[in-house]
């Protein structure tokens, strides 16, 4: 309760700069929407910081349990009732559902594209032979090597600022990052080239946020109206399609996957590809259908890719 007795919406967040930027945006939107919903009780939104193992342990993500380590602690705080909503980068959210938790809102998506942040304004085509480009993502690595087999992909980890500094310090010629993360951190000036989704298919859900709440509260909590108002059905459908594809492909292969859904009125178009680690092979496809069939469209395209040999790409040399 805040001093005048109105309920405080407790929004759980990690402490990283990106998480705080995203949570802060959602907090402001939720406060405005709740206030605008005609509800007498104008709520405050309180940010509650949650420390996760991924923040403490800087070892390679794959060794400490993948991006799931960030999500787990935040979801536990939600399930335990310490907070009411949590905000995730949708692309970091595992596809398996969590008990008692639902995605209460999917706000309007930012640009889902990946971007190059290079020294001296360089583009992918302009990088010198043997240029050192940082990314920790097998998906970005494979597609970068498909575009430029001669560049050296350097594995990197750490937050967005750490990665940008590798370029400004002269350790790397460039890094590949998400346009959305840079925009939210007000670092878009570092972008030297926006990579078209045709050339660099984004991660499933990239650029979108997932606002999770407890399932029991989704319809009935005093903030349910604000969650409804925050939800963008087009973004939700795009994320649903990309993530159902990912879940269905993951069941059949562990090769890098990229996907991009676009929405035009009531129609959704999903393009996706699975890559060999070296980027020299790929299986790509598209599917178009009604927005309301987003999940089924993702499964349909996944089955198509698997039928055409997506699973086999796992065996390709690294
Ligand atoms: N893996 C870290 C991460 N998780 C989400 C984003 C960007 C924000 C988004 O996808 O919406 C980033 C940084 C990046 O990939 O450059």
TrEMBL record:
Outline the extent of the Porphobilinogen deaminase N-terminal domain.
9-220
- The keyword Transferase belongs to this UniProt entry's keyword annotation: yes
Q: A Pfam family this protein belongs to?
A: Porphobil_deamC
Swiss-Prot/TrEMBL cofactor(s) = dipyrromethane
GO molecular function terms noted in the UniProt entry: hydroxymethylbilane synthase activity
Q: Which PANTHER family match?
A: PORPHOBILINOGEN DEAMINASE
What this protein is called in its record is Porphobilinogen deaminase
Source organism (scientific name): Nakamurella flava
